[in-house]
């Protein structure tokens, strides 16, 4: 039986010049995540980490919280996030003046104010919904929705097919986690987006692969069929009751 912990990175720097780094709140979240998860692991876990700076910084914060619970990491490109950030950067100049939902969302972000983070979330929601539906044209170097689903689905299936009875900790992003959960439960594309939006920073999602058939995704391995079971989704109790630590960016 294999247990896979899918961990979303801590809060990124959405309103800074560089998005791909943890904010001070993100650093706090990462340490709390490490303390909590480290206390529940039976031994040092095998670690997979996505290629973004915020992924590596989250793992570093986890290790500060629990220095001896996370083994040497393996860089896993399949854990990369979708290209939503790149998409928004490329299309913002084109839509900023347009009478379009994406243009409205861009202008709300530009106003700033106390709802700035919420406005950023809304902007990405509008952009990614259009991207997933194929309604926004973009350069070929931006990964398509179909390619993103294929990449994350192939990663999940490779773990199931591997018959590796161990505990894996994967530090990645909300989009990748939402897509893998959708794959596991057989959810359609629109539902995969809903799962992505709900994921909080430094949250824990846990999947277990076993030889008991009770889920949508069945894969035959050398020792018989294995299935993936969603046990925990978007757990954030380790962040406590302080509202400022419960973020989505």
Summarize the structure.
The protein has 249 residues and is of the alpha/beta class.
Task: Characterise the protein shown here.
Helix 3 (84-95) crosses helix 5, helix 4 (101-111) runs antiparallel to helix 5 and helix 5 runs antiparallel to helix 8. The chain has helices at residues 24-40, 53-65, 84-95, 101-111, 116-132, 145-161, 174-185, 189-198, and strands spanning 2-8, 45-49, 70-75, 167-172, 204-210, 218-221, 224-235. By secondary structure, it is of the alpha/beta class. The protein has a 7-stranded mixed β-sheet with strand order 3-2-4-1-5-7-6, with helices on both faces. The model has no long low-confidence stretch (mean pLDDT 89). It folds into 2 domains: 2-81 and 153-245, Rossmann fold; 84-132, no CATH class. Strand 2 (45-49), helix 2 and strand 3 (70-75) form a beta-alpha-beta unit.
Labels describing this entry:
8 helices; alpha/beta; 2 domains; 249 residues; Rossmann fold; single chain; 7-stranded mixed sheet; globular
Determine the fraction of residues in helical runs and give it as a percent range.
Answer: 40-55%
Any idea of the CATH class of the largest domain? Answer: Alpha Beta
Name given to the CATH homologous superfamily of the largest domain: Phosphoglycerate mutase-like
Question: How many strand segments?
Answer: 7
Strand fraction band?
A: 15-25%
User: Spans of 5+ residues with little confidence (pLDDT < 50)?
Assistant: none
